């Protein structure tokens, strides 16, 4: 028996060697096929000339094209539109191919200045002369929302702005200001009157309208959002109605592109339990790393299965926390300043 085993042993080793060789061969062949298949994946190049780059960014990423942007300035053409593409539309190319796009810079490039803490007159003067390269250009004020001063806030002073300071953008982007009411009677008449002039909040940024209502201790509800006709209306109040139970706000909203550094975000949450809820927004202030915390919903009773909507402006890494008085933390949203 022992002798028979010794005779078979060399043959089994040979068979094992051949088997391992075949296994290695098939694995290698499989990998070659996978790699070649991956390399040979083709995509159809779309026609993007004349479209705004923001609108096609996600589609080009889906096609796995490596986009390289170049710029050209033609003032009479719309800012951000694509002037040329290096790959002709309709051409089949491999996924991962480089695509060069020439994008129009129709406006002067500027960095949004910080006007928080300035009185309105001084802020207007700063926005009239913003440096762009070697020349000064004006920034247009999209709107001014007046709110009651709280604590030791001085009257007629900028307490918030959208876009936030430091954003690199173009001179055609409008800037919105949140300003404390002046003690001057004439200026005070420009602010919202709960029963007669609530329409003044229409066209203002939703977070500014919420700030006003928070200061007035008026509960609010954000209704379904609607798509705006023009992109510049994104994030603004589309409708406002004051009812005995509180304010109802409509919002213009476009789903933000992942390429945008600053944008509005709608946060939705289906309430789990009947409770009284509050929501806090917090972020680290750029420059001095101080923590800023702000209540954007205060002690509002909400019922189970009710849909809560909050609108915030994301300019840096931001956290929003929803807390029930009895049930504790219900939801935490963490938003990145840059996606």
TrEMBL record:
Residues in PASTA domain copies: 39-105, 106-181
InterPro entries assigned: PASTA_dom
SUPFAM superfamilies: Penicillin-binding protein 2x (pbp-2x), c-terminal domain
Keyword Lipoprotein: no
TM annotation in the entry: 12-35
Origin superkingdom: Bacteria
Pfam families in the cross-refs: PASTA
Protein keywords: Membrane, Transmembrane, Transmembrane helix
Protein name: PASTA domain-containing protein
Species whose genome carries this gene: Leptospira biflexa serovar Patoc (strain Patoc 1 / ATCC 23582 / Paris)
